[in-house]
Amino acid sequence: MKLGRFACCLSLMVMCLGGVVFGAAEETRVLALSPEPQNAEWAKSWWMPRHEQKLAEARERKGQVDLLFIGDSITHGWESGGKAVWDEFYGRRRAFNIGFSGDRTEHVLWRFQHGEIEGLNPKVAVVMIGTNNTGHRQDKAEDTSAGVAAILDELKQRMPATKVLLLGIFPRGETATDRLRQLNDKINESLKTMADNERVFFLSLDSVFLERDGTLPRATMPDLLHPNSDGYALWARAMEPTLRRLLGEKPRLPEPVVIPVWPDTVPGDTTQEKESLQPDRGDSIMRVTNVSVPTLAVYKAPNQRGPVGAVMICPGGGYHILAYDLEGTEIAEWLNSIGLTAVVLKYRVPQNRDGAIQDAQRGLGLIRQHAKDWGIDPTRVGVLGFSAGGHLSAYLSTHYAQRGYAAVDEADALSCRPDFTVLVYPAYLGTPDWDLVDEIPVTRDTPPAFIVQTQDDKALVPSSLAYYKGLSQAGVPAELHLFPTGGHGYGMRPSVYPVTEWPRLCETWLTRLKTK
User: Fold this and answer.
1) If we measure between CA atoms, which residue out of 506, 434, 420, 505 comes closest to residue 470?
2) Residue pair 269/292 in contact by the 8 Å Cβ criterion
3) DSSP 8-state symbol, 496
4) Considering Cα of 39, then 42, then 45, then 49, what sign does the dihedral take?
5) Closest by alpha carbon to 502, among 423, 401, 396?
6) Cβ distance 202 to 187 under 8 Å?
7) Which end of the chain is more exposed for a tag (fewer CB within 10 A), N or C?
8) Cα(90)–Cα(106) distance, rounded to whole angstroms?
9) Distance from C-alpha of 117 to C-alpha of 165, rounded to nearest angstrom
10) Is 376 exposed, middle or buried (0-12, 13-18, 19+ CB in 10 A)?
């Protein structure tokens, strides 16, 4: 009897201890890593049918998918608010969207394990997931990161040849102090370390969506979480250079024709230092310095049926460096897209304004000399400059009657007067009282100009206003676009600020422009 009671007690003890162990296991189970279907009440009517639909669509495509989007409602939204942008950027790329509203990392894992990517072998998979782990459960950052890592492992096993573009979770909440924003930021710090830059690549688009003070504007994310159509356009434009590279697409810019500005000896001063690139500052800007051999890089307009206009581009950089891609080759790509030949001037730096002016004067003459060879209309050759390059462009536009060097050849017998001038946040043109500096003598023969400026770029506002004022007083057609915010040095990279629409405004101006 006593033995029976002991056995019974022992059995009860084991059961109780087992329950404690099982309960502890339940408590330590990481939900972000535990595959399961979406079982929220609000999703029951559509989530599983959408999964079945995506399975069927994948079968119908028979693996013919080059670009795969994986995520939650933000990715799902490409089929609604982002559809027009999707059609523009991805309609021709055999793209497939498996974003599901409300999904967390565990739901994506379940979908992978239940056939949703079976038979697919895309060139690139774009992955963004985790903001619902933050918002629905406020998972610890390390748990969400572990869930994302598990998704990457699944992709590696199921699609070993696919490159993965892992996006940082988009910012949420109005300010940088928002608790959920900070949690996403912490997750993103971990996601960065998952990129090996061979198969997995990380890209953060925070700088595109956020204002400079960290504010998330409702103009592009009305609920401070989901992009609207403008937000999807920002996403697509910002991701495009990386996506093109990962997809192995040909660069949109043709190979340039590169010629030296000077055939033999460069007049005036040159640096003895070797031309070089400065280290990247984390902003993906190619900063060229110590230029002693100036060049013209000519990007011919595609599909020419006759002579076209041309624009000589003068990158900025305070006459210290040249922001060669931000304010050079990226601008050339845009000019090509609107049917113009682009010519990037690599002028002398650092601290060589006189040399830069000589390079610009001869550069304009060279473009006209080679107009026939390059398919250019010599009566529609303009100049476009940023910051210090804007000063150089304005100086060229007001000092074309006489060269600052002894003539070298026939190119120096041709006019170096631009037929039009485009200035984007130009520097060194105005006094604090918004008057032109003496070295910029605007007259009625100064070329017409298009000017872009933001009010919060305070040091340079006088330059833009003074140049516009001078042109107006001289009776020269001019168009000034002054925006309240946007700062300095944006080139034409996308941001939440309306000033990044300046290329569209400039294209309209160029189309309507009448030149002498």
Assistant:
1) 434
2) no
3) S
4) negative
5) 423
6) no
7) N
8) 27
9) 16
10) buried
Tokens of 181: 């924003």
Do the beta carbons of residue 67 and residue 122 sit within 8 Å?
yes
Of 122, 78, 129, 91, which Cα lies nearest the Cα of 235? 78
Distance CA 296, CA 311 (A): 11
Q: Which residues contact residue 187 at a Cβ distance below 8 angstroms, ignoring those fewer than 6 apart?
A: 130, 134, 141, 144, 145, 148, 169
> With contact defined as beta carbons under 8 Å apart, do 176 and 214 qualify?
yes
Break the chain down into helix, strand, coil percent, rounded to 5.
40, 15, 40
For the residues of 93-140, what is the DSSP string, one character each?
TTEEEEE-TT--HHHHHHHHHTTTTTT---SEEEEE--HHIIIII---
pLDDT in 10s for each residue of the chain, 516 residues = 333 443 334 343 334 434 433 344 445 789 999 999 999 999 999 999 999 999 999 999 887 999 999 999 999 999 999 999 999 999 999 999 999 999 999 999 999 999 999 999 999 999 999 999 999 999 999 999 999 999 999 999 999 999 999 999 999 999 999 999 999 999 999 999 999 999 999 999 999 999 999 999 999 999 999 999 999 999 999 999 999 999 999 888 889 999 999 999 999 999 999 999 999 898 899 999 999 999 999 999 999 999 999 999 999 999 999 999 999 999 999 999 999 999 999 999 999 999 999 999 999 999 999 999 999 999 999 999 999 999 999 999 999 999 999 999 999 999 999 999 999 999 999 999 999 999 999 999 999 999 999 999 999 999 999 999 999 999 999 999 999 999 999 999 999 999 999 999 999 999 999 766
The length of the chain is 516
- Distance of CA 418 to CAs 71, 196, 219, 310, 506, Å? 50, 47, 38, 10, 16
Structure tokens at 36: 């399961």
CB of 107 within 8 A of CB of 161? no
C-alpha angle 326-330-332 in degrees, rounded to nearest 5 = 130
Whether the CB-CB separation of 277 and 260 falls below 8 Å is answered with no
DSSP, collapsed to helix, strand or coil, labels residue 376 as strand
Instruction: Select from 73, 71, 100, 95 the least CA-distant residue to 85.
Output: 95
Token match 């005036």: residue? Answer: 268
Written as one letter, the residue type at 223 is D
Report the candidate in 502, 427, 499 with the shortest Cα–Cα distance to residue 466. 427
DSSP secondary structure string for all residues of 204-225: --HHHHS-TTS---TTT-TTSS
Q: Cis (ω within 30 of 0) for the bond into 350?
A: yes
Residue 53: count of CB within 10 angstroms of its CB: 11
Q: Quick check: 478 and 471 in contact, CB under 8 A?
A: yes
In angstroms, rounded to a whole number, what is the distance separating the alpha carbons of residues 272 and 115? 63
Q: Quote the DSSP letter at residue 248.
A: T
Q: Alpha-carbon distance 475 to 458, whole Å?
A: 27
